[in-house]
Design goal:
This protein is α+β, with helices and mostly antiparallel strands. It has 6 helices and 16 strands. The strands form 3 sheets. Strands 1, 2, 3, 4, 5, 6 and 7 form a 7-stranded antiparallel β-sheet that branches. Strands 8, 9, 10, 11, 12, 13 and 14 form a 7-stranded antiparallel β-sheet that branches. A two-stranded antiparallel ribbon has the order 15-16. A hairpin with a 2-residue loop joins strand 15 and strand 16.
């Protein structure tokens, strides 16, 4: 449940737009406006301190959905003034189950102390729509409800994924045929077009693979991520992928599946079904729901998996060793921190 509390903090750094009409909104301090839309039944009790709020939410910017939990597991957050930022605490103490809340906040206010994302502009608003689904007396009751919701979603997603997998495979195969592309199928379903086979060490489950990549949507070819594009934040930073399983090294399953077919020096193009990518929810606004993906990759290194050594860091495609002076400084800082925060005294064993 701790993650859902952090959601409110995340609201303070996401911007959006919902027009500039103030009708029905109540002005709050800090460039924030809110509107409470009452349920048609308007029954039940107002939220009280200590209860746990259950809600769906949707973020909007220029009428585009940045994120939504509709159709997913709802959010849960305790109504505690010490854990929820003051504006939201005040507003949600005024709602009942079934109500909706719309909150707008100026980007000018949100980004005074931090850079504004390039696709956002001053004068626009954060717009977040909350649909209040329920109120629970305590965290125990809310956790039980969340567990049920997660089980239902996993069951539903498994059924949907089976159907979507067939659709994805046909879409990718049709694309390969139309473009006269020869590709092999990796063990779990990623299609791999090998452009240059490479001559170095082959990838296997004991290896860490360093890659350069650019990701695009199959449908329109639009780029969504890269560590080679000159405009990307991770330009020239080698990305480590553990070859031993899905999501190792922070990559999606389809990526590691395709990499498993390669060797050092290889240049390849991966065609990844949505079910092995970002699935039915996507990663808006860059990756749409059920989006099949293309990754252009170059395998720059294939190394035996081992624990990271002190003073070693990945960057620019090679390991960079810290200087002895820097290592000594880091060691001194660690010792000072240990003296400042000594470990708790060991407790005697419990007698049975």
């Amino acid at each position: 449940m701790q993650k859902v509390v952090l959601f409110f903090v995340a609201l303070l750094v996401i911007a959006g737009s919902f027009g500039c009409k103030d009708a029905g909104y109540v002005k709050y301090k800090g460039g924030l406006w809110y509107k409470i839309i009452r349920s048609s039944s308007d029954t039940g009790h107002f939220a009280t301190k200590g209860q746990v709020l259950k809600f769906d939410l949707t973020f909007l910017y220029n009428d585009s959905i940045l994120r939504t939990t509709r159709g997913q597991v709802p959010q849960y957050a305790p109504l505690d003034s010490g854990r929820v930022p003051e504006p939201y605490y005040t507003i949600f103490m005024k709602v009942k189950a079934g109500d909706s809340v719309i909150i707008r906040q100026l980007t000018d206010s949100l980004f005074k102390m931090r850079p504004m994302p390039p696709f956002m502009k001053k004068g626009n608003y954060i717009v977040t729509h909350f649909a209040v689904l329920g109120l629970y007396p305590d965290m125990t009751a809310a956790q039980a409800d969340q567990d049920k919701a997660m089980l239902a979603m996993r069951t539903r997603d498994s059924i949907d994924a089976i159907a979507q997998k067939s659709i994805d495979e046909k879409t990718i195969q049709d694309y390969l045929t139309a473009h006269n592309i020869k590709a092999v199928k990796a063990p779990k379903g990623t299609f791999v077009e090998i452009l240059e086979p490479g001559s170095g060490t082959a990838v296997d489950s004991t290896k860490t693979v360093g890659v350069f990549y650019t990701g695009r949507a199959l449908a329109d070819g639009k780029e969504f991520d890269s560590n080679t594009d000159s405009t990307a934040q991770r330009k020239d930073t080698l990305f480590d992928v553990m070859a031993r399983g899905p999501m190792q090294g922070g990559m999606i399953e389809g990526f590691t599946d395709g990499v498993s077919m390669l060797r050092q020096g290889a240049v390849a193009r991966l065609y990844i079904p949505s079910s092995m990518g970002y699935g039915k929810y996507g990663s808006p606004p860059r990756i749409q729901p059920n989006a099949n993906l293309i990754f252009d990759i170059r395998v720059a290194s294939v190394d035996t998996i081992k624990r990271a050594q002190p003073g070693m860091a990945r960057g620019g495609g090679a390991q960079q060793k810290l200087s002895p002076a820097m290592l000594a400084r880091l060691k001194a800082m660690q010792q000072a921190q240990a003296q400042k925060n000594p470990p708790p005294a060991q407790q005697p064993p419990v007698q049975h």
